[in-house]
Design goal:
21 strands, alpha/beta, elongated, six-stranded mixed sheet, Cytidine Deaminase, domain 2, 18 helices, 3 domains
C-alpha cells in the first residue's frame, strides 16, 4: 500500500505516519515541509519527482500525482495507462489545507497575504481521492488518523463503507473551504448573488423542537463567538433544540444590560426581566414578574451565583441555568435538581454585529441584516408630557426588553423590572390586554408604570387601555397615520409618550 501525505497542519501526523510505516505502508510526499517533518521523525518517505514552478504554486498539479489518485484499479485501460507511464497508484491520500480562514481573519492582514493562503493543489488531490473512494481512502482530519490505523491493524485494509464515509468528509471539507473563500470575496456586497453557508456541527441535541424530530446545533464557521462558545455544562441532561432556542433569546436580552440582570425565558419570550443592585435582587424581581410562566424556564444571569442565590434557584424548576460562575455552595444546592442543566459562561467576546439574520421558509431562506442596534434616549422625541428621570430609566429598560419579545409585543415595567408581557399576538390591543392582565394576576401595581410597544399603535385603543389602568409613560416607534389621535389620547390623560423612530418586529 502507498500513502500520499501532504499536510499543512501536522497535528497527530507523527503517530499516524509511524503507524502506517509499521504496517508496511510506503509513505510518499511531494517534498517540502511535510517531507522534512517525516524525516525528522526518522522516517524515509519516497519523494515524487515532479517539477515545481511559480515559486511552488504549481507542484502537486501533475499527472504523476493525479493519475495515481484517480486511476480505477478495476479498469484495464486505467491500469495499462499507469504501467505505460510508470506511475504507481495511491491507496491512501492524507491531505489538509492551508489555513485560509485563520489567516484571513487576522487583524491587518493584506489581500495578498490572504490570497496566498488559498490552497489549489490540496483541494484538488482531496477531491480526486474522494471521487475515487472505491479504491482510495481520503483522510483530511487528524481526528480520523486513529480510526484509520485501527481498521488497518484489525482488517489489513480500509472497508468500502469507511472509504465512502471519509469521502463524504473530504467533499464537505473542500466545500466549506471554498465557501469561506467565496464569502471572503463577497464581503464587499451586502447581499451577494450567491450566498454560501458554512457551518460546523457543535453538538448533537437530545431531540428537535418535538421529541420525534432529530436535532443538532451548528455554528457559523469561524465565528468569533457563538451560542455555546466557551460554555461548559456542569450538570443536567443533554441540551435540546428548545433549550438552545430559549437560551439564545435569554443571552440576547442579557447583553442589553451591564448592571446586575436576570432574564427568565419561556418559549423564546421573556416572562421576567429585571435589574438590581445585586444579582439576587435582580432574580427576585424577575421571578416575581410571572412566577407561573417561569416554571421550567431558562434563567440567564450576568453575575456569579453564590450559595444564597443557589438555594433560591434550587427551589424552582429551572430547565437551563446560565451564569458566569457558581461558588461551591451554589453548585451543591443546584445539583440537588438532577434535571437542571447548569451552564458556565466563559465567553467574553461579543458576536459580530454584521452577522446576517436567517429564517428558513418553504424551499428557501430569508436573509436580512441582524437587528443588533438599539436606540437610546438621546435620539428619542418626546411627543406628550415630560418624563422624569425614573420614567426615563424604566422607558429605556422596557424598550430594550421589548425589542426581544415576539411581535406583536408589549412590555409593562416599573422599577427596572417587567411586570407584564404581552407577546406574539395578532392584535396589538390584545397584547396590551394580556400584559395588563398578567400584571394584575400577580398583584403588580400598574399605576405609575411604563409601557413599551415594539411597533406603532395604529389606534388610540391600546394606549387608552393602559392609561385607564394607571400607566403613566409610553415608548413606541411612532409613524402611524393616526399618531395625532394617539398623542392626543396620552396628552389628555396627563401622561407621557416618546417616539423612538424605529420599530423592532421579531417574528
Amino acid at each position: 500500500m502507498r500513502a500520499l501525505i501532504s499536510t499543512y497542519d501536522t497535528t497527530g501526523l507523527d503517530v499516524f505516519a509511524r503507524g502506517l510505516a509499521e504496517l508496511g505502508v510506503e509513505l510518499v510526499t511531494t517534498g517540502g515541509s511535510t517531507d522534512a517533518f517525516l524525516r525528522e521523525l526518522g522516517l524515509e518517505p519516497t519523494v515524487i519527482d515532479v517539477p515545481q514552478m511559480l515559486g511552488g504554486r504549481v507542484k502537486t498539479l501533475h499527472p504523476r500525482i493525479h493519475a495515481g489518485i484517480l486511476a480505477r484499479r478495476d479498469n484495464p485501460e486505467d491500469v495499462a495507462t499507469l504501467a505505460e507511464h510508470q506511475i504507481e497508484p495511491f491507496d491512501i491520500v492524507c491531505i489538509n489545507l492551508y489555513p485560509f480562514e485563520r489567516v484571513a481573519a487576522k487583524q491587518g492582514v493584506t489581500e495578498a497575504e490572504a490570497v496566498e493562503m488559498i490552497d489549489v493543489g490540496g483541494p484538488s488531490m482531496l477531491r480526486g481521492a474522494a471521487k475515487n473512494f472505491a479504491h482510495v481512502t481520503a483522510v483530511c482530519r487528524p481526528e480520523r488518523y486513529g480510526f484509520v490505523l485501527d481498521e488497518l491493524r484489525e482488517d489489513g485494509e480500509i472497508s468500502l463503507e469507511t472509504r465512502r464515509e471519509l469521502a463524504a468528509e473530504a467533499f464537505a471539507t473542500t466545500a466549506v473551504y471554498e465557501a469561506a473563500i467565496a464569502n471572503w470575496f463577497s464581503e464587499r456586497e451586502s447581499f451577494p448573488d450567491k450566498l454560501v453557508l458554512s457551518l460546523d456541527k457543535v453538538l448533537d441535541l437530545s431531540y428537535g423542537e418535538n421529541p420525534h424530530q432529530r436535532g443538532a446545533y451548528y455554528a457559523d464557521r469561524g465565528a468569533r463567538a457563538h451560542l455555546l462558545s466557551r460554555v461548559e455544562q456542569l450538570n443536567g441532561k443533554a441540551l435540546s433544540f428548545n433549550n438552545l432556542n430559549d437560551l439564545s433569546a435569554g443571552r440576547a436580552i442579557g447583553r442589553e444590560f451591564t448592571l446586575p440582570a436576570c432574564v427568565i425565558v419561556k418559549h423564546a419570550n421573556p416572562c421576567g426581566v429585571a435589574l438590581g443592585a445585586t444579582i439576587e435582587e435582580a432574580y427576585d424581581k424577575a421571578l416575581a414578574s410571572d412566577p407561573t410562566s417561569a416554571y421550567g424556564g431558562i434563567v440567564v444571569l450576568n453575575r456569579d451565583v453564590d450559595a444564597a442565590l443557589g438555594e433560591k434557584l434550587a427551589e424552582q424548576f429551572v430547565e437551563v441555568l446560565f451564569a458566569p460562575d457558581y461558588d461551591d455552595g451554589a453548585l451543591e444546592a443546584l445539583r440537588r435538581r438532577k434535571g437542571t442543566r447548569i451552564l458556565v459562561d466563559r465567553e467574553r467576546r461579543r458576536p459580530s454585529a454584521q452577522q446576517r439574520g436567517l429564517k428558513r421558509v418553504l424551499g428557501g431562506v430569508l436573509v436580512q441584516d441582524a437587528d443588533a442596534e438599539i436606540e437610546d434616549r438621546d435620539g428619542w422625541t418626546v411627543v406628550a408630557g415630560t418624563p422624569d428621570e425614573q420614567q426615563w430609566g424604566d422607558l429605556v429598560f422596557a424598550w430594550r426588553v421589548c425589542k426581544h419579545v415576539l411581535s406583536n409585543a408589549i412590555v409593562i415595567a416599573t422599577d427596572l423590572a417587567t411586570i407584564g408581557v404581552g407577546a406574539g399576538q395578532m392584535s396589538r390591543v390584545d397584547a396590551v390586554r394580556i400584559a395588563l392582565d398578567k400584571a394584575a394576576e400577580f398583584g403588580h401595581e400598574t399605576r405609575g408604570a411604563v409601557l413599551a410597544s415594539d411597533a406603532f399603535f395604529p389606534f388610540p385603543d391600546g394606549p387608552e387601555r393602559a392609561l385607564e389602568r394607571g400607566v403613566r409613560a409610553i415608548v413606541q416607534p411612532g409613524g402611524s397615520k393616526r399618531d395625532d389621535l394617539v398623542i392626543a389620547a396620552v396628552a389628555d390623560a396627563g401622561a407621557t409618550m416618546v417616539f423612538t423612530g424605529r420599530r423592532h418586529f421579531r417574528h
